[in-house]
Amino acid sequence: MTLQQLFQPVREATFFGDAQVVISGLELDSRRVFPGQAFFAIHGYRQDGHRFIPDALARGALAVVSEAAPAPGSDGRLAAWVQVPNARRALALAAAEFYGHPSEQLQLVGVTGTNGKTTVSFLIASILDAAEKKPALFGTIEYRLVFGEPGGSRPAPNTTPESLDLQRMLRQVVEAAGKSAVMEVSSHSLALERVAGCSFHTAVWTNFSRDHLDFHPTVEDYYAAKAKLFLATEGQPAPQIAVLNADDAHCSAISNQTPARIVRFGIEQPADVTARKWKAGRSGISLTAQTPAGPVELDSLLVGRHNVYNLLAATAAAIGLGATSEQIRQGVRSLRVPGRME
User: Fold this and answer.
1) Which tens digits make up the pLDDT trace of 218-264?
2) In what helix (H) or strand (E) does residue 173 lie, and over which residues does it extend?
3) Between β-strands 14-17 and 80-83, what pairing exists: parallel, antiparallel or unpaired?
4) Whole-angstrom Cα distance, residue 117 to residue 225?
5) Do the beta carbons of residue 169 and residue 136 sit within 8 Å?
6) Would you call 23 helix, strand, or coil by DSSP?
7) Same structural domain for residues 174 and 308?
8) Global pTM value
9) In angstroms, rounded to a whole number, what is the distance separating the alpha carbons of residues 4 and 325?
10) Nearest alpha carbon to residue 143 among 162, 124, 116, 161
11) What is the pLDDT of residues 115-168, one digit of tens each?
12) Which of 289, 248, 293, 241 lies closest to 263, judged by CA?
């Protein structure tokens, strides 16, 4: 793939040097650069990637991507330089292009919210596994390229993978005949453009409360980061379905901005998916979920009122993904969430 083809989805990319040079891969860590790759010099919170451009060139990088213009008299080993407005977003969009937009070949589900992301993601993945949709799972606890197979999981360095790693793993899911993927989408990842270039079938917003102000300057910034999952941006369409907590006014507010089809879940306010009868005890939860597809009887090892919401969120998402009532029951009944209270 040529450098120009790679950056086709990136608006306002400016090329210096040979835009037709063929690129063999992408990298943002100079220690992992192989000959023929493009190196993305990203100004991070601990390190400035521009410091490592000489190392990347020494290892064979052909192009550098940066928010800065090249300095006069650049290294003669460099075939091209690409200046972009946002290097993190450019990396995400270029990675999606390089790996052939794998998210478009999957039913991709993104789950965001202050609390409940991990449990809801596991629930949806378990239901999709029961529906024989061969899901992958990416989240706080682990990454699984095939959810239903024992072993094969890897520790998760981030709740949401770095964009380059994410697109690479999604391509692996497609090549392994996977049909779906479920991903926890943190506010950090949205602010850092890690999921730019992903096409989400369904996006879930579990709840919203004050948090992560060590990273986001204000609560408004935190909310705006979460909201990005439900909006169309450069290289990323809005999801087809938005699953929102009807009992949380912050979550419901996005319904006025997203073009996605809205499915609401909740207990107190009118909702598409709700629990008219439910019992949460020490041994688990039993409830009847009222849904547009009819009542669904659920029995879960999860405990606590908060997990009633998590079960309703997962049920709402699963119905939009085409799961039957029996598949939802089976996926919920069989699930144990690692590290989560039962």
Assistant:
1) 888 989 989 999 999 877 899 999 999 999 999 999 999 999 999 99
2) helix 163-175
3) antiparallel
4) 15
5) yes
6) coil
7) yes
8) 0.94
9) 48
10) 161
11) 999 999 999 999 999 999 999 999 999 999 999 887 778 888 888 999 999 999
12) 241
Where the chain has pLDDT below 50, the residues are 342
> Contact, 287 vs 275, CB < 8 A?
yes
- The Cα 265–Cα 55 span in angstroms is 51
Report yes or no: 153 and 142 within 8 Å, Cβ to Cβ: yes
Residue-number span of the structural domain to which 22 is assigned: 3-86
In 3D, which of 18, 170, 162 has the Cα closest to residue 105? Answer: 170
pLDDT at 342: 45
Q: How far is CA 142 from the centre of its chain?
A: 14
Q: How many CA atoms lie within 13 A of 248 on its CB side?
A: 22
Nearest to 289 by CA among 262, 318, 261: 318
137 and 228 belong to one structural domain: yes
Is there a contact between 337 and 122 (Cβ–Cβ < 8 Å)?
yes
Q: What is the 8-class DSSP label of residue 233?
A: B
| Strand order from edge to edge, sheet including 284-290 | 153-155, 142-144, 135-138, 180-184, 107-112, 202-205, 241-245, 261-266, 273-281, 284-290, 296-300
Question: Phi-psi bin for 152: left (phi > 0), alpha (psi -120 to 50), beta?
Answer: left
d(CA 299, CA 224): 35
When divided into structural domains, the chain yields a total of 2
Residue 149's SS3 state is: coil
Residue 236 to residue 254: CA distance in whole angstroms: 17
Q: How far is CA 206 from CA 100, 149, 203, 249, 311, in A?
A: 30, 27, 10, 11, 11
Domain harbouring 156, CATH code? 3.40.1190.10
